[in-house]
C-alpha cells in the first residue's frame, strides 16, 4: 500500500484506494474490502455511497452477502420460535400505579411549565415587529 496521506488527523482516500473500491465494492464483502484498505467498514460504506457505488444483484443473491433469506439458516438461532414466551409477559403497563405514581402523573387537559406561558387560544392574532397582524 502506498504512503498514507493525512489531513486534520484523518487518512485521505488516494486514487489507488478509489480505483480498488470502484473495482471490488460491487462484487465483494464490505468487511473484506475494509480490511484490505485498512479502513473501518463505515468508512468504506460512506465512500462507496459518495461515489455512487452499490452492490450487484448477483452479489446480493449470493451466500456471501449473508442476507436473511427463506430457506437459509443465517440468523435462525436469533429468531423467535413458535410458542416463545416474551420476557416481559405479565409485566404491568403504564398507568398502573405504585404508591403516588398515579397522582403525580400529568393530568388530561392540564398544561405545565413552558406550555402555560406559550399557550394562545385558536384564532389569536399576533402583531409582528413591523406592525402587521399574522
Polypeptide structure, described:
The chain has 134 residues and is mainly alpha-helical. Helices cover 31% and strands 3% of the residues. The chain contains six helices and two strands. The chain has helices at 15-24, 30-37, 41-50, 57-61, 101-104, 114-118; strands at 6-7, 10-11. A two-stranded antiparallel sheet has the order 1-2. The protein is flat and about 65 Å long. The N and C termini lie far apart (64 Å). The mean pLDDT is 84.
Give the helix/strand layout.
Blueprint: E1 6-7, E2 10-11, H1 15-24, H2 30-37, H3 41-50, H4 57-61, H5 101-104, H6 114-118
Antiparallel strand pairs: 1-2
Features:
single chain, about 130 residues, mainly alpha
Concise overview:
The chain has 134 residues and is mainly alpha-helical. It is built from 6 helices and 2 strands, in the order E-E-H-H-H-H-H-H. It has a two-stranded antiparallel sheet with strand order 1-2.
Poorly predicted ranges (pLDDT <50, ≥5 residues)?
none
**How many DSSP helices?**
6
Helix content: 25-40%
Kindly state the number of beta strands: 2
* Shape estimate: flat
